[in-house]
Design a protein that fits this description.
Layout (H helix, E strand, L loop, with lengths): L1 H34 L9 H22 L10 H24 L6 H7 L3 H12 L6 H19 L6 H28 L5 H24 L12 H24 L2 H22 L7 H27 L7 H17 L37 E2 L2 E2 L8
Antiparallel strand pairs: 1-2
Helix pairs in contact: 1-9, 1-10, 2-8, 2-9, 3-7, 3-8, 4-10, 5-7, 6-11
């Protein structure tokens, strides 16, 4: 009986992880297919992201104001002006640049570039004074950077413009994560995925409207645009589902488990992208460089885990330490943040107002899903588009 009671929750955890990996990978590939001129041919990434934002914001409004599934948090004008608006601005920028990269470079290469997320977040944290420059962490960041450079050198269809878009989106997301920590944690404000969508999506929509009006609107001649309602509806629905799957995973696992799932998802996505999009070619140098970068990320995570455990009193007994570990994991699970530039995975905006890890699931066009937990900052798995 006890074995069955233990195996069922474990089975549910693996099921949620599987759902997250499938949705995260699916949203990225779906977005690439929609945006690519070779396939659906809707080369308007800002428009696509705005559709996701509008849909998610409307669903969140319906859940909060009509169905009253959750209650809105106490949001003052001062908090909204000093916290939500600047965070939404950088979030919108990360989505804009990250999604535009799909027009120029392959999904596989985008995933490899996302290994830079810990580097970007660490740099921004040091500049903003929320982290200290340490030799061991800095050496890992150098290793990650070298790996990404090698991977870029081995890219057959290397495109400078696409690479610049993606890297700029990564640094914009990193700055958003740091601002989330600096601004919101001081206010003691945490949001669940529904309230995050409720407050962030409309504000990001407004920020995206400006570049859309200047850059994409003049080129959108109605007769030349393919607009299939079911394509865009299903795409936005997948992005929304990704937000909630991230929430379920974070609620049942710890930060380390999520990172492992994120790395697994990246490898699966890189392999799948070469099958779905045959023009995407991976070279041996790509793999070697990405493997080097991942070694740096793994070592960085290990250092952060050691820091957390070292901060516990050495006199604590085993039971006390287990209780503290559980509380830390529970605390990090309660802080919900999105994963993106994966997210990209950027269909996910959920949790972008809470503490964060730097691995954005930038893979869902609504956000990058990331958390900055007590264990450290690494991509969640890059995401969400």
């Amino acid at each position: 009986m006890q074995g069955k009671m233990i195996s069922k929750p474990l089975l549910m955890t693996y099921l949620y992880l599987l759902i997250y990996i499938i949705l995260s990978s699916g949203v990225i590939l779906y977005n690439k297919w929609v945006l690519s001129p070779k396939y659906f041919n809707f080369p308007f990434p800002i428009t696509l992201t705005m559709i996701h934002m509008g849909f998610s914001g409307a669903v969140a409004f319906f859940l909060i104001r009509v169905l009253k599934v959750v209650a809105p948090v106490k949001m003052t004008f001062e908090i909204y002006a000093t916290c939500v608006i600047p965070i939404s601005a950088f979030f919108a920028a990360s989505l804009w640049f990250g999604n535009t990269a799909f027009l120029h470079i392959s999904v596989a290469f985008i995933q490899m570039l996302k290994a830079l997320m810990p580097v970007a977040t660490f740099c921004m944290a040091v500049l903003c004074g929320t982290d200290k420059l340490r030799c061991d962490v800095f050496s890992n960041m150098v290793l990650v950077s070298i790996g990404v450079v090698i991977s870029s050198y081995g890219e057959i269809h290397f495109n400078v413009i696409g690479t610049l878009y993606q890297v700029t989106g990564i640094f914009a997301e990193a700055l958003r994560l740091v601002l989330t920590q600096v601004l919101l944690q001081k206010k003691g404000l945490t949001l669940n995925p529904i309230t995050s969508l409720y407050y962030i999506a409309p504000c990001s929509f407004v920020f995206l409207f400006i570049p859309w009006y200047l850059l994409e609107q003049p080129e959108m001649e109605v007769p030349q645009i393919q607009f299939n309602f079911w394509i865009f509806f299903s795409n936005a629905l997948c992005a929304l589902a990704l937000n909630f799957s991230i929430f379920l995973v974070i609620g049942r696992t710890g930060a380390v488990t999520i990172r492992v799932a994120g790395v697994l998802k990246d490898w699966i996505l890189i392999a799948l992208s070469t099958v779905v999009f045959p023009e995407s070619i991976i070279t041996g140098l790509n793999i070697v460089g990405y493997a080097i970068a991942l070694c740096g990320v793994v070592m960085y995570n290990y250092i952060k885990v050691k820091d957390v455990r070292a901060s516990q009193a050495p006199s604590d007994g085993i039971v006390e330490r287990m209780a503290k570990d559980w509380k830390l994991e529970k605390k990090s699970s309660d802080i919900y943040v999105p994963n993106s530039n994966d997210d990209n995975d950027r269909g996910s905006i959920a949790g972008s107002l809470s503490g964060s890890d730097s691995k954005v699931d930038e893979e869902a066009p609504l956000i990058s899903t990331s958390r900055l937990s007590h264990i450290g900052r690494t991509q969640l798995g890059g995401h969400a588009i």
